[in-house]
Design brief:
Blueprint: H1 2-27, H2 30-66
InterPro entries: DUF6167
Pfam families: DUF6167
Protein name: YtxH domain-containing protein
Amino acid sequence: MKRIFWLIVGIAVGVYAVTRLKKRAQVLAPEAVQESAAKLAAAVRHFGDQVREGMAEREAELRESLGIETAQDEREDYR
């Protein structure tokens, strides 16, 4: 009876370990890493766009408050 109990416990632990290792392998697979990197790059680009937009708004506010001519200077977009 004890042997059957320990056999079942061993099988359950083995199945659990294999499923956990498969999930971990899928997370660390090159496709998953590539997707994570793409998501991170998109988030960084979005953040940069928001910062540039905020800077332009603040610059317009400062130019208006200081009475500086609001003619747009020809500037390069550094994206």
